[in-house]
């Protein structure tokens, strides 16, 4: 399995429009972060986690020309609003429908917000050809066992995903003990860590490090980073086995 972190930024992206802070003004390309998304390449197939607002730019930057399935974490704009760009990937698979999966609330929100995709009345032009299914438990996808992992995003229950030996948990402020059990045995953990200061709906960097210890993965990559995180300076404070994500980071598992 190979994974590519397509984007590792929070909902604003980094730099933030109109901001001239140290991070937003930094010439270091590792401080430029598109909205969070990840690509999994396994058994000749590409599985995308979330269709971020920056999906088109991410695909072009990383040479992604095929998407075979999509896993959704939750229905916030920065994680779903790139969905229309999936239509370009239909061209590479003979216009076969791309299967999408998520929790019931996420599926309902996507069907409502993008109802033109899922209606068949001939009133629209070129649009994505997708199927979408609400899932509650593990299922097999292209030879990999895929497990939805419930976590809390503030007071809202959303999903992380375990795919084989990879676990991806973003926009998280609490991991229930039952979900820690599902995450243990992970080889690479990609985990949200917004900033140093507390936030009501996201792990801080310190909280994410503690959660990573509880999971026990040999390698943890912190993602969904805000413009409060300076890559090189703050990266030196991380413990062994923990690192910051960067757009385009590729990892073999």
In short:
By secondary structure, this protein is of the alpha/beta class. Helix content is about 20%, strand content about 30%. The longest helix is centred in the last third of the chain and has 11 residues, at about 205-215.
The tally of structural domains comes to 1
Continuous helix count: 8
CATH topology description: Metallo-beta-lactamase, Chain A
Structural class: alpha/beta
Largest sheet: 7 strands, mixed
Q: Report the strand count.
A: 14
Helix-strand string: EEEHEHHEHHEEEEEHEHEHEE
Distance from N terminus to C terminus (CA atoms, Å) equals 5 Å
Query: How is the largest sheet built, in terms of strand order?
Result: 6-5-4-3-2-1-14
Give the CATH level 1 class. Answer: Alpha Beta
CATH A-level architecture: 4-Layer Sandwich
Uncertain segments are none
Radius of gyration: 17 Å
Name the CATH superfamily classification. Answer: Ribonuclease Z/Hydroxyacylglutathione hydrolase-like
- Whole-number mean pLDDT: 97
Helix proportion: 10-25%
Q: Could you tell me the strand content as a percent range?
A: 25-35%
Helix/strand layout:
Elements lengths: L1 E6 L29 E6 L2 E5 L5 H8 L6 E3 L5 H4 L5 H5 L7 E5 L1 H10 L1 H4 L11 E5 L4 E3 L2 E10 L2 E8 L2 E4 L7 H7 L4 E5 L12 H11 L3 E5 L7 H5 L6 E3 L5 E3 L1
Parallel strand pairs: 3-4, 4-5, 5-6, 10-11, 11-12, 12-13
Antiparallel strand pairs: 1-2, 1-14, 2-3, 7-8, 8-9, 9-10
